Amino acid sequence: MELPKGVLSAVKSIKHFEQLLESDEEVIILLETRLSLLPKLVRKARKHGKKILVHTDLIQGLKNDDYGLEFLFHEVKPHGVISTRSNVITAAKRHNILAVQRLFLIDSQALDRNVAIMKKTQPDYVEVLPGLIPSFISEIKEELGIPIIAGGLIRTKEDVQLALTAGAHAVSTSRKELWEIE
Q1: At 40, which helix (H) or strand (E)?
Q2: For residue 149, what is the domain's CATH number?
């Protein structure tokens, strides 16, 4: 599965999730929910023709071990997952599920360590946080050869444009006012 270019809508609330079901958005990133609601939300998204990516690290009650991932992949069946954890990315790739690995730009050592890990795990996309540092978007894209999603602290249309101009494939944001940017 290839993600659309531009802005990807990320939701933290059921209200925004419901609004996106009625929108033209193709993909919904589900950031936070409870494990008990997750299967219902994914089924509902599929019913509305939406592809859903689940941020596994933020699902309350989901443990990112082999058994939790087995439940997620076989019972919930999202189109893709987002995680900081390499075991989640590796498992998603084994199950032919889109894998987005999050990379937090904390310092040079963390960047180098995470780039080395991603060279091994080969996620489908890398989400760089914060997504406000255009030079790092370009550098990481060149280093890994993997499409970049810029996320975190994206607050304005200008932030979106800067990230896309720097080479990001897409920008993820939970700011509803930015979802409609072309």
Answers
A1: helix 38-47
A2: 3.20.20.70
